[in-house]
Amino acid sequence: MKYGYFDDPLREYVITRPDTPLPWINYLGCQAYFGIISNTAGGYSFYRDARLRRITRYRYNNAPYDFGGRYIYLRDDASGEFWSPSWQPTRRKLDDYSCRHGLGYTIIGSKYQGIEARTRYFVPLDENLEIWQTTVTNHRSQPAELSVFSLVEFCLWDAQDDSTNFQRNFSIGEVEIEDGVIYHKTEYRERRDHFAFFACSEKTAGFDTQRETFLGSYRGWDNPAVVESGHSGNSLAHGWAPIGSHHVKLFLPPGASRQIVLVLGYQENPRDEKFDPPDSQILNKKAAKAALAKYLLPSVADVSFEKLRRYWDELLGLCQVDTPDVHTNRMVNIWNAYQCMATFNMSRSASFFESGIGRGLGFRDSNQDLLGFVHMVPSRARERIVDLAATQLPTGGAYHQYQPLTKQGNNDIGSGFNDDPHWLILGISAYIKETGDWGILDEPVPFDNAPGSERPLYQHLQRSFRYTLDRLGPHGLPLIGRADWNDCLNLNCFSDSPGQSFQTTTNKDGKVAESIFIAALFIHAGRELAKIASHRGLPAECASYLAEVSKMEATIRKHGWDGEWFLRAYDDFGRKVGSKECAEGKIFIETQGFCTLAGIGLEDGTAERALEATRKLLATKHGIVLQQPAYSKYYLELGEISSYPPGYKENAGIFCHNNPWVIIGETRVGNGDAAHDYYTRINPSAREEISEVHRCEPYVYAQMIAGADAPTHGEAKNSWLTGTAAWNYFAITQWILGIRTDFDGLRIAPVIPGGWSGFKATRKFRSTIYQIEVQRAGSGNQVSLEVDGKPVQGNLVPLPPAGTKTVAVKATLR
Ligand code: BGC
Ligand code: NOJ
């Protein structure tokens, strides 16, 4: 069953009924001012940091779902009836409801008793504000007298404090009203130098800024007293809960339309220019007024919307493919790339499942997110790499997270996730491959942000590699520390007290438990580092990396192979994890995926055997589960993984992030059918038809789909902010379609399904546009290349002379 459809030419997903199984959201903003918006206008906005600069309030895990939003109420002043064109919060039955989620904007509209209202929400490029353009049309044969009420509820900036510290917060709310514009300025009198403003293009009949006046006591958002009566209270918030609401009266003859523009914005003032006049306590509104003078004009709003569309056309135009599979095309050309922008911007902070107060930017996560983002805005990728590396510790280890506003490592979580440092190597190598910017390695970057500790970025990579060699366990495998990629495999935690954090509790000294996953990651990252060292003219160093890599490979063969698949780890007692000797958790996906992706076992058939075991024991029709059999009870020595009910999350859920590792593994053994089949099983577009089972948005990946052990097998959770986005993008574009960036050029090495006759692609790479045509002339994956009509040996398209605009590449598969 579907709840809408893809409008591919417009690059929109159109939701045709408001009661989707879960709120289906979109993101507004892609630079500094951000918001999430659901298909019923729920959501919130923030500036840079969803925790520390929350502009509007949202209530997570509420009943009904999804409260707090960008609401418009309409009231028929003749009958007194009122409704929400976005369905929530009044939930009156609407005609012609639709929500179009597009790239950086959302349009929600409907008809009710002949009155149509449609609102386009977006954040213009380079501005710290959002625009709501509402068009109201009277389709009745009679004139209509209407009232329009806008509504936002302000958050008192620190979202965590806002939802807990009521003894203070009920007394601090402050606003100013000037020329009908509502300014929210809580805490501005003291240490804050920022405020929010909410303005309306039309003459207002009234306003409200105190929630209780607007709602009336003991009333909800579905039934506000002010909307019911048709009269604003002109309330001034002092403490309690500041809101922003305008009241506009409309008289619409039959067939007439009117547009109302609402602008919600964020403004920071220089410290010494906070007040105007300077010796007063009145907000200096100069900059905000200038922005309003511009954006309240519908024509300016239209132009900035067109700019936003062009921006996305350009970004997506960097890589476009035309394959025989509509789901591949749609995801690569539109939604998967778009999701990669969201994960790059948000990391794992703000979604319907991430509350914006839980996590900063993850070191591991953000480095992986680069794999899907780096081709879009390389300059921002570069900045992110430098920020991440600056939180690396002198040991080579890394803070697991940092706050985007301060860019400092997060002390509460600390470090000790022993996989972390290697993701930096992979992030940087992806960046250099994309851009050819070798100069980044000479950039001076501090450790732990300590002034004076700056070293060339290259040294950070050296220390990342060294970190593992300094921490080897009894089998010569890397010690796992608090966890590796699998945050829930906590082998040194031994937590027996409720409420303890699995990620930060450590009861063992960590000298025994080892990770075969980190060993594979070390091999993969080590090979990249060796290439980088060789390029820097350091052959001895390159050779030493390769020697360590070979040694680790031998160790995996000796201590990391279980006979039919790769082991996962050794626990604190030195016992195997992910082995046929185990009662539960006999086989794990991570090592089958990452070892084969890293090319381990390609020569002796072990890679193929690991992939066979994966197919036999882990693959389901909804994707590949994380391990089997699921843990049926809590294992003190394994940690959080066994805390989840079977089939959920890391306990045998389909963790979509690691499915692409198997997909890449399958391409490495030349099996394009299996690779694309796995790709399709978790492709959200291919799952659209079963939206009642999948339940999350059909246009973006979710972190998890319930595994076969769960009663809800096939149900997705935690959509949007997941490494799944980058890894799937990387797997399909670089490994299945095989358009692979490399240090010395673009490689064309497709491993596509046998049934495909070929495909076409356009890829911009280092300022040149590659027009690629792949044709199948046999059943294998052997590539013959013709570049601009001339045959080229191998599968690497050599870099063209500087200034070359386009290159035509023809690849024939035999
Ligand atoms: C989740 C993991 C996540 C971790 C982050 C755990 O509860 O299961 O998926 O990575 O929290 O801290
Ligand atoms: C989600 C976390 O963000 C990521 O860092 C981790 O690798 C996976 N969960 C698996 O536990």
Please tell me about this protein's structure.
With 814 residues, this protein is α+β, with helices and mostly antiparallel strands. It is 27% helix and 25% strand. It is built from 19 helices and 42 strands. The strands form eleven sheets. It has a ten-stranded antiparallel beta sheet with strand order 1-2-9-10-11-12-19-16-15-14, covered by helices on one side. Strands 6, 7, 8, 13, 17 and 18 form a six-stranded antiparallel beta sheet that branches. Strand 11 and strand 12 form a beta hairpin. Helix 7 (326-346) packs across helix 19 and helix 8 (363-373) packs antiparallel against helix 9. The two termini are 40 Å apart. The model has no long low-confidence stretch (mean pLDDT 97). Bound molecules: beta-D-glucopyranose (BGC) and 1-deoxynojirimycin. 1-deoxynojirimycin (NOJ) binds next to helix 8.
